[in-house]
Amino acid sequence: MAYHNEILVGRFNRALQKFLSMKGPPPAPQLASDIGATFNFPIGNEFRYLESWFRYGSRHIIAADAAAAGGFRMRNPVGSNVIAVLEKITVNAGTVGGYAFDHGLAVGVPDLTTIVAAIQERFDPRGQQQPTLVRSLQTTPTVLGAGTTKWEASVAVTTVNDLIQTDIQEVTILPGDFMTLRATAVNQGWIASVWWRERALEESERT
């Protein structure tokens, strides 16, 4: 009996083809009896690139300034057609003080003073080399809150605070969204570290 390719999200078929070195047409074109793979997706981070997820990480030093509270921002450009998922966010406090995490729609929210230069921040060289998200930081003037503050804490000196403890706490950054890590008081020196993954939006996800 004839069948047709009713699965229009091709990245899972491509993942099976690459992972199993299969030749020919899509190995799982239908949702009924044709799909026999029993792999649990995701298998692991080494499989992410086969699912068209590309992983990146970076750390940023925000120097203390007696007249300002510094911050770090990540913005997903409008029209990027990319979804990003924040996997790890840490604040390493060099001084005692308060810190906050803001998240929301980036319309009207500008980048910070210094745009982070594009460098090779990928975890897996088999995937896309450069991230899509725009990173920026500044020490002065004070970074004001924008969007919704979704985490705030007082951090002891030389303490590392990890905002994401489990995968259910991961944060999505869709086109037009942003996140900001910022000090809530002046004269705080600290380090922001972020790990994230990106992939192209599926047609069904675009609005």
What tags apply to this protein structure?
single chain, 207 residues
Q: Major sheet: size, sense and barrel closure?
A: 6 strands, antiparallel
Termini separation:
37 Å
How many DSSP H or I helices?
1
- Can you list the strand order of the major beta sheet? 5-6-2-10-4-7
- The percent range for helix content is under 10%
Give the rounded overall mean pLDDT. Answer: 85
Strand content: 35-45%
Query: Structural class of the secondary elements?
Result: mainly beta
Rg, Å, rounded = 20 Å
Query: What form results from the Cα inertia axes?
Result: elongated
Order of helices and strands: HEEEEEEEEEEE
Low-confidence stretches: none
Tell me the number of structural domains: 2
Give an overview of the whole structure:
- The protein is mostly beta strands.
- It has two domains: 10-39, no CATH class; 54-205, no CATH class.
- Helix content is 5%, strand content 36%.
- The chain has one helix and eleven strands; from the N terminus they run αβββββββββββ.
- It has one helix at 10-20, and strands spanning 54-62, 71-75, 82-93, 97-105, 114-115, 134-138, 148-155, 160-162, 171-173, 177-183, 190-200.
- It has a six-stranded antiparallel beta sheet, with no helix packed on it. Strands 1, 3, 8, 9 and 11 form a five-stranded antiparallel beta sheet that branches.
- The two termini are 37 Å apart.
- The mean pLDDT is 85.
